[in-house]
Fold:
Amino acid sequence: MRELTRHWINDVNRGVTILASESQDGDIYVALADHTLEQARRFQGEVLNVGSYGMTNEALLVILIDRFERAQRGARACPENDEVLSMLEGILAVLTLKEMRRESNGG
Structure:
């Protein structure tokens, strides 16, 4: 498994270890907070037309968008969160367009 460290921007994030393992059948990400298992998530793999069996990038984006929208309604609202929200929504829009194009071309 590879260790991901790009999130290590402060002490809180340095306390979270992300391990990644990828395969054609689906990627696995494991999150450890202070060396304790928090979450293990399987992401949808490359195989198409087999149904849903793991989290998708789009689903993860929607979770992040929801978290930032809620943050913006609270005491920690800030311009940076608005910028992040705009970027996340833009990414989701591009992925949606990609999927629409793919479906219109027959899959």
